Amino acid sequence: MVTLRQLEVLCAVIETGSVTGASRRLNLSQPAVSKLLATLERHIQLVLFRREHRRLVATPEAHRLYEESQHLLVGLTDVARLAEELRSLSSGTLAIASLLALGHRLLPEVVGRFLRARPAVNFSYQVRSSNKIMQWVVTNRIDLGIAMHSIDHDAIETETLRTVEAVCALPADHPLAARPWIAADDLTGQRFISFGSEGRIQDAVDEMFDSLGIRRRIIGRVFNSASACSLVAQGLGVAIVDPFSAADFAGSGVVARPFRPAISYQFKLLYPRSRERSKLLNAFVPMLKAAARDWPVPVAPPDTPA
Questions:
Q1: In this protein, which residues make up the domain named HTH lysR-type (predicted)?
Q2: What is the pTM of this model?
Q3: CATH topology of domain 93-163+266-294
Protein backbone atom coordinates (compact mmCIF):
# COMPACT_ATOMS: atom_id res chain seq x y z
CA MET A 1 0.00 0.00 0.00
CA VAL A 2 1.30 3.43 -0.97
CA THR A 3 1.63 5.79 2.01
CA LEU A 4 1.63 9.56 2.23
CA ARG A 5 5.12 9.42 3.73
CA GLN A 6 6.41 7.63 0.63
CA LEU A 7 4.87 10.29 -1.60
CA GLU A 8 6.40 13.02 0.55
CA VAL A 9 9.81 11.40 0.08
CA LEU A 10 9.29 11.14 -3.69
CA CYS A 11 8.43 14.85 -3.92
CA ALA A 12 11.31 15.87 -1.66
CA VAL A 13 13.87 13.88 -3.69
CA ILE A 14 12.66 15.35 -6.98
CA GLU A 15 12.56 18.90 -5.61
CA THR A 16 15.95 18.78 -3.86
CA GLY A 17 17.64 16.56 -6.45
CA SER A 18 19.12 14.11 -3.99
CA VAL A 19 18.49 11.71 -1.13
CA THR A 20 20.66 13.93 1.06
CA GLY A 21 18.55 16.99 0.36
CA ALA A 22 15.33 15.06 0.97
CA SER A 23 16.62 13.69 4.28
CA ARG A 24 17.40 17.21 5.49
CA ARG A 25 14.02 18.58 4.43
CA LEU A 26 12.05 15.75 6.01
CA ASN A 27 14.33 15.34 9.03
CA LEU A 28 14.93 11.69 8.18
CA SER A 29 18.13 9.69 7.87
CA GLN A 30 19.42 8.97 4.36
CA PRO A 31 18.90 5.20 4.80
CA ALA A 32 15.28 5.85 5.81
CA VAL A 33 14.70 7.95 2.68
CA SER A 34 16.27 5.30 0.45
CA LYS A 35 14.18 2.55 2.08
CA LEU A 36 10.94 4.51 1.60
CA LEU A 37 11.77 5.08 -2.07
CA ALA A 38 12.57 1.40 -2.60
CA THR A 39 9.35 0.35 -0.89
CA LEU A 40 7.35 2.75 -3.06
CA GLU A 41 8.92 1.35 -6.25
CA ARG A 42 8.18 -2.17 -5.13
CA HIS A 43 4.52 -1.38 -4.37
CA ILE A 44 3.80 0.36 -7.67
CA GLN A 45 6.16 -1.86 -9.70
CA LEU A 46 7.79 1.07 -11.47
CA VAL A 47 11.35 2.37 -11.62
CA LEU A 48 11.27 5.95 -10.35
CA PHE A 49 14.95 6.90 -10.30
CA ARG A 50 18.05 5.90 -12.21
CA ARG A 51 21.54 6.58 -10.96
CA GLU A 52 23.68 8.37 -13.51
CA HIS A 53 27.17 9.57 -12.66
CA ARG A 54 26.55 9.28 -8.92
CA ARG A 55 23.31 11.28 -9.03
CA LEU A 56 19.64 10.29 -9.10
CA VAL A 57 17.66 11.07 -12.24
CA ALA A 58 13.88 10.86 -12.01
CA THR A 59 12.13 8.83 -14.70
CA PRO A 60 9.13 10.19 -16.65
CA GLU A 61 6.94 7.93 -14.52
CA ALA A 62 8.36 9.54 -11.38
CA HIS A 63 7.56 13.03 -12.69
CA ARG A 64 3.99 12.00 -13.53
CA LEU A 65 3.56 10.51 -10.07
CA TYR A 66 5.11 13.65 -8.59
CA GLU A 67 2.47 15.85 -10.24
CA GLU A 68 -0.38 13.78 -8.81
CA SER A 69 1.29 13.58 -5.41
CA GLN A 70 1.59 17.37 -5.30
CA HIS A 71 -2.16 17.76 -5.78
CA LEU A 72 -2.80 15.26 -3.02
CA LEU A 73 -0.33 16.76 -0.55
CA VAL A 74 -1.54 20.32 -1.19
CA GLY A 75 -5.08 19.12 -0.61
CA LEU A 76 -4.05 17.54 2.69
CA THR A 77 -2.33 20.77 3.67
CA ASP A 78 -5.57 22.62 2.97
CA VAL A 79 -7.47 20.11 5.08
CA ALA A 80 -5.03 20.56 7.94
CA ARG A 81 -5.28 24.33 7.67
CA LEU A 82 -9.08 24.14 7.62
CA ALA A 83 -9.05 21.89 10.68
CA GLU A 84 -6.89 24.43 12.52
CA GLU A 85 -9.24 27.26 11.48
CA LEU A 86 -12.21 25.27 12.74
CA ARG A 87 -10.46 24.64 16.05
CA SER A 88 -9.64 28.34 16.39
CA LEU A 89 -13.19 29.38 15.32
CA SER A 90 -11.82 31.45 12.45
CA SER A 91 -13.56 29.46 9.71
CA GLY A 92 -16.68 27.40 9.09
CA THR A 93 -20.32 28.05 8.30
CA LEU A 94 -23.22 29.24 10.42
CA ALA A 95 -26.85 29.51 9.30
CA ILE A 96 -29.32 31.51 11.41
CA ALA A 97 -32.89 32.68 10.92
CA SER A 98 -34.76 35.12 13.12
CA LEU A 99 -38.14 36.75 13.30
CA LEU A 100 -38.17 40.45 12.47
CA ALA A 101 -38.52 41.70 16.05
CA LEU A 102 -34.90 40.73 16.79
CA GLY A 103 -33.72 40.48 13.21
CA HIS A 104 -33.87 44.17 12.35
CA ARG A 105 -31.33 45.65 14.76
CA LEU A 106 -30.24 43.37 17.59
CA LEU A 107 -29.17 40.38 15.49
CA PRO A 108 -27.26 42.41 12.86
CA GLU A 109 -25.27 44.10 15.63
CA VAL A 110 -24.33 40.75 17.17
CA VAL A 111 -23.56 39.21 13.78
CA GLY A 112 -21.41 42.21 12.89
CA ARG A 113 -19.27 41.91 16.02
CA PHE A 114 -19.01 38.14 15.56
CA LEU A 115 -17.88 38.32 11.93
CA ARG A 116 -15.45 41.19 12.41
CA ALA A 117 -13.47 38.86 14.67
CA ARG A 118 -13.93 35.93 12.23
CA PRO A 119 -13.88 37.32 8.67
CA ALA A 120 -13.42 33.87 7.08
CA VAL A 121 -16.69 32.50 8.49
CA ASN A 122 -19.39 31.85 5.91
CA PHE A 123 -22.53 33.27 7.52
CA SER A 124 -26.14 32.86 6.36
CA TYR A 125 -28.72 35.10 8.05
CA GLN A 126 -32.40 35.39 7.12
CA VAL A 127 -35.49 37.03 8.62
CA ARG A 128 -38.62 34.88 8.48
CA SER A 129 -41.82 34.13 10.37
CA SER A 130 -41.76 31.93 13.47
CA ASN A 131 -43.58 29.16 11.58
CA LYS A 132 -41.05 29.16 8.73
CA ILE A 133 -38.14 29.22 11.17
CA MET A 134 -39.56 26.21 12.98
CA GLN A 135 -39.84 24.34 9.67
CA TRP A 136 -36.21 25.11 8.82
CA VAL A 137 -35.00 23.89 12.20
CA VAL A 138 -36.96 20.65 11.88
CA THR A 139 -35.46 20.00 8.42
CA ASN A 140 -31.89 20.89 9.55
CA ARG A 141 -31.72 23.80 7.13
CA ILE A 142 -30.32 26.16 9.78
CA ASP A 143 -28.11 25.87 12.86
CA LEU A 144 -30.16 28.25 14.99
CA GLY A 145 -33.62 29.74 14.86
CA ILE A 146 -34.98 32.63 16.90
CA ALA A 147 -38.74 32.55 17.16
CA MET A 148 -41.58 33.54 19.45
CA HIS A 149 -43.54 30.31 19.72
CA SER A 150 -43.55 27.88 22.58
CA ILE A 151 -42.31 24.97 20.50
CA ASP A 152 -43.07 21.36 21.33
CA HIS A 153 -41.51 19.17 18.64
CA ASP A 154 -39.36 16.05 18.91
CA ALA A 155 -36.87 17.43 16.35
CA ILE A 156 -36.33 20.76 18.16
CA GLU A 157 -34.47 21.75 21.30
CA THR A 158 -35.58 25.08 22.77
CA GLU A 159 -34.09 27.62 25.12
CA THR A 160 -35.54 30.92 26.30
CA LEU A 161 -33.54 33.87 25.00
CA ARG A 162 -35.47 36.62 26.77
CA THR A 163 -38.94 37.31 28.07
CA VAL A 164 -40.18 40.90 27.79
CA GLU A 165 -43.46 42.69 28.32
CA ALA A 166 -45.46 44.10 25.44
CA VAL A 167 -45.65 47.87 25.10
CA CYS A 168 -48.25 50.23 23.71
CA ALA A 169 -47.00 52.02 20.60
CA LEU A 170 -48.61 55.43 20.13
CA PRO A 171 -48.17 58.34 17.72
CA ALA A 172 -45.84 60.87 19.34
CA ASP A 173 -48.58 63.51 19.38
CA HIS A 174 -51.26 61.22 20.81
CA PRO A 175 -52.86 62.49 24.06
CA LEU A 176 -51.98 59.23 25.82
CA ALA A 177 -48.28 59.64 24.93
CA ALA A 178 -47.86 61.97 27.92
CA ARG A 179 -48.63 59.16 30.34
CA PRO A 180 -45.85 57.05 31.92
CA TRP A 181 -47.78 53.84 31.23
CA ILE A 182 -50.95 52.78 29.47
CA ALA A 183 -53.79 50.74 30.97
CA ALA A 184 -56.10 48.60 28.87
CA ASP A 185 -59.12 50.79 29.62
CA ASP A 186 -57.21 53.82 28.33
CA LEU A 187 -57.64 52.30 24.88
CA THR A 188 -61.46 52.18 25.03
CA GLY A 189 -62.74 53.44 21.69
CA GLN A 190 -59.20 54.09 20.40
CA ARG A 191 -58.26 53.32 16.81
CA PHE A 192 -56.38 50.04 17.19
CA ILE A 193 -53.99 48.24 14.83
CA SER A 194 -54.21 44.49 15.38
CA PHE A 195 -52.37 41.41 14.14
CA GLY A 196 -53.57 38.54 12.01
CA SER A 197 -55.96 36.17 13.73
CA GLU A 198 -53.42 33.30 13.64
CA GLY A 199 -50.96 35.10 15.90
CA ARG A 200 -50.56 33.75 19.43
CA ILE A 201 -49.83 37.17 20.89
CA GLN A 202 -52.91 38.57 19.23
CA ASP A 203 -54.99 35.79 20.80
CA ALA A 204 -53.69 36.86 24.22
CA VAL A 205 -54.39 40.54 23.48
CA ASP A 206 -57.93 39.86 22.26
CA GLU A 207 -58.70 37.62 25.23
CA MET A 208 -57.44 40.26 27.64
CA PHE A 209 -59.56 43.06 26.15
CA ASP A 210 -62.62 40.78 25.90
CA SER A 211 -62.29 39.64 29.51
CA LEU A 212 -62.21 43.28 30.63
CA GLY A 213 -65.14 44.21 28.43
CA ILE A 214 -63.10 46.85 26.58
CA ARG A 215 -64.08 47.66 23.02
CA ARG A 216 -61.48 48.99 20.60
CA ARG A 217 -61.91 50.39 17.12
CA ILE A 218 -59.86 47.88 15.12
CA ILE A 219 -58.96 49.64 11.88
CA GLY A 220 -56.97 46.79 10.34
CA ARG A 221 -54.66 43.82 10.86
CA VAL A 222 -50.98 43.45 10.04
CA PHE A 223 -48.46 40.61 10.09
CA ASN A 224 -45.93 41.82 12.67
CA SER A 225 -45.02 44.52 15.17
CA ALA A 226 -42.83 46.40 12.71
CA SER A 227 -45.75 46.81 10.31
CA ALA A 228 -47.98 47.93 13.18
CA CYS A 229 -45.41 50.52 14.25
CA SER A 230 -45.16 51.81 10.67
CA LEU A 231 -48.90 52.54 10.72
CA VAL A 232 -48.67 54.04 14.19
CA ALA A 233 -45.97 56.39 12.87
CA GLN A 234 -48.49 57.58 10.28
CA GLY A 235 -50.91 58.51 13.07
CA LEU A 236 -53.42 55.82 12.10
CA GLY A 237 -53.87 54.33 15.56
CA VAL A 238 -52.23 52.59 18.50
CA ALA A 239 -50.95 49.01 18.83
CA ILE A 240 -49.71 46.50 21.39
CA VAL A 241 -46.30 45.37 20.14
CA ASP A 242 -43.02 43.87 21.25
CA PRO A 243 -40.57 46.41 22.73
CA PHE A 244 -37.74 45.58 20.33
CA SER A 245 -39.80 46.58 17.29
CA ALA A 246 -41.08 49.69 19.08
CA ALA A 247 -37.50 50.74 19.86
CA ASP A 248 -36.68 50.60 16.14
CA PHE A 249 -39.22 53.40 15.56
CA ALA A 250 -38.09 55.67 18.38
CA GLY A 251 -37.62 59.14 16.97
CA SER A 252 -39.77 58.30 13.94
CA GLY A 253 -43.08 59.52 15.27
CA VAL A 254 -43.68 56.58 17.63
CA VAL A 255 -43.44 56.45 21.42
CA ALA A 256 -43.63 53.25 23.46
CA ARG A 257 -45.16 53.04 26.90
CA PRO A 258 -45.38 50.09 29.30
CA PHE A 259 -48.78 48.41 29.10
CA ARG A 260 -51.00 46.94 31.81
CA PRO A 261 -52.16 44.28 32.39
CA ALA A 262 -48.85 42.77 31.34
CA ILE A 263 -48.64 40.64 28.20
CA SER A 264 -45.42 38.70 27.74
CA TYR A 265 -43.37 38.09 24.63
CA GLN A 266 -41.09 35.08 25.02
CA PHE A 267 -38.30 34.81 22.47
CA LYS A 268 -36.92 31.31 21.98
CA LEU A 269 -33.71 29.82 20.62
CA LEU A 270 -34.45 26.77 18.46
CA TYR A 271 -31.82 24.12 17.73
CA PRO A 272 -32.08 21.03 15.48
CA ARG A 273 -32.04 18.10 17.89
CA SER A 274 -30.36 15.76 15.38
CA ARG A 275 -27.41 18.09 14.70
CA GLU A 276 -24.54 18.53 17.13
CA ARG A 277 -23.90 22.20 17.83
CA SER A 278 -20.71 23.47 16.23
CA LYS A 279 -17.95 25.32 18.02
CA LEU A 280 -18.92 28.42 16.04
CA LEU A 281 -22.52 28.21 17.22
CA ASN A 282 -21.39 27.70 20.80
CA ALA A 283 -19.30 30.86 20.49
CA PHE A 284 -22.10 32.88 18.88
CA VAL A 285 -24.96 32.05 21.27
CA PRO A 286 -23.38 33.60 24.42
CA MET A 287 -22.82 36.85 22.49
CA LEU A 288 -26.46 36.80 21.40
CA LYS A 289 -27.70 36.09 24.92
CA ALA A 290 -25.65 38.94 26.37
CA ALA A 291 -26.92 41.37 23.73
CA ALA A 292 -30.55 40.32 24.24
CA ARG A 293 -30.18 40.59 28.01
CA ASP A 294 -28.73 44.10 27.83
CA TRP A 295 -31.01 45.44 25.07
CA PRO A 296 -33.01 48.32 26.65
CA VAL A 297 -36.81 48.10 26.70
CA PRO A 298 -39.44 50.37 28.29
CA VAL A 299 -40.12 49.38 31.90
CA ALA A 300 -43.21 50.30 33.89
CA PRO A 301 -42.74 52.47 37.02
CA PRO A 302 -42.41 50.45 40.26
CA ASP A 303 -45.91 51.37 41.48
CA THR A 304 -47.60 50.34 38.21
CA PRO A 305 -50.23 47.58 38.62
CA ALA A 306 -49.21 44.20 37.22
A1: 2-59
A2: 0.67
A3: D-Maltodextrin-Binding Protein; domain 2 (3.40.190)
